[in-house]
Amino acid sequence: MTYKSPFQTKQQICDLSKRYLEADANNDITDKDCLAAGLSLLEGVDERRNLRIVVHWKLQAFVERFAWARDFPNDLIDDEISHALIPARRMIDPFDKRKIGHALRVLDSLPGVGIPVASAILMAMHPNCFTVIDRQAYRALSADFRDPISPTEYFEYLAFCREQANLFGVNLRKYDQALWQFGSEN
User: Fold this and answer.
1) What is the pTM of this model?
2) CA proximity to 181, closest of 4, 34, 11, 23
């Protein structure tokens, strides 16, 4: 997959990130809520509730329209949730493709979770290391979003985003927010 960054300057990224956060403040679940839930997941606190927050944050556009999104993770037993979070919680080296791939596959094994939602869970737990893959970001990058996304495609996307964030001197979360906002506005 070839990605083309729409950004010319760090200021453009910062402005878009700011607009993202301003619009996000009106959401039922905000970016801040998602990150707080991710930290709680990392610490193993109230996994069901915090996983619900992260997944509902990612799927906000679908929660009201689709029962499967609204009801997640009601049909899961606690052991399934705990088991799925272990590889993400143990992510010591966020550059180890084997471990990232394993975490993505285990999270993806939960009903209703695909690689985009799994990437949101990883980002919520490790916001400085992972980014969220989604349609808005792909629109911003002039790339075709093909569902389902493979772990390999996520690795390519993640490497691109890390490189661009580093190039512009912003953190990965800010770059992710700017991409989403740019895709949303265009």
Assistant:
1) 0.96
2) 23
